[in-house]
Design brief:
By secondary structure, the chain is of the alpha+beta class. The chain has helices at 2-67, 71-88, 95-118; strands at residues 120-122, 135-141, 150-156, 159-161, 164-167, 169-174. The protein has three domains: 1-67; 71-118; 121-184, Nucleotide Exchange Factor Grpe, Chain A, domain 2.
Length: 184
């Protein structure tokens, strides 16, 4: 009988020990599942944020595509318009030719006005400080009477289109230095 009593006393401890092991096992599984859920929620939130950023980027790109859709056309049409401007500004003594040139000048001015209304803007380069972002130096002169780094002549006009550089102004730049004693 004393052995039975000992067995009976031991059994509740064993049962409790088994319950604790099962409980710990379930707690570990639950903690692991909580970690997985947290990780998946985090991944889902990141994916949602990434999708929103993608949508915003695509929307911005579409807006810019529409905004600058005619940029290439305007760039390509500037050379013939510049040539037409040079032609209509040629001096002539022939009255008949003068009348034609006046008409063509009016058409040329209207074309430039339409382009300006769409966002074309001439770069003001004459007597301005040389800016490599807006100007392209094609020639350098040394005139000490004028400021150093100033554009002294515009060879070809430059343009921006809706705040983007379309064509840089080709300029002659005044550049001199006292350092070498040759004024160059």
């Amino acid at each position: 009988m004393s052995e039975d009593i000992k067995n009976e006393q031991v059994e509740p401890e064993v049962v409790e020990n088994k319950k604790d092991k099962k409980t710990n096992k379930y707690k570990e599984q639950l903690a692991q599942r909580d970690k997985e859920i947290f990780k998946l929620k985090d991944q889902l939130l990141r994916n949602v944020a990434e999708l929103e950023n993608f949508k915003k980027r695509v929307t911005t790109e579409r807006i810019n595509e529409r905004k600058f859709a005619s940029k290439n056309l305007i760039h390509d049409i500037l050379i013939p318009l510049d040539m037409l401007k040079m032609i209509v500004n040629q001096p002539t003594d022939d009255e008949k030719l003068k009348n034609y040139l006046i008409g063509f000048k009016m058409v040329n001015d209207q074309l430039y006005q339409v382009l300006e209304n769409d966002g074309l803007k001439e770069i003001d380069a004459l007597n301005k400080q040389f800016d490599p972002n807006l100007h392209h130096a094609v020639e350098k002169v040394s005139d000490k009477e004028k400021a150093n780094g100033i554009n002294i002549e515009v060879i070809q006009k430059g343009y921006t289109y809706k705040e983007q550089l379309l064509r840089p102004a080709m300029v002659k730049v005044n550049e001199w230095s006292d350092e070498n004693g040759k004024d160059e």
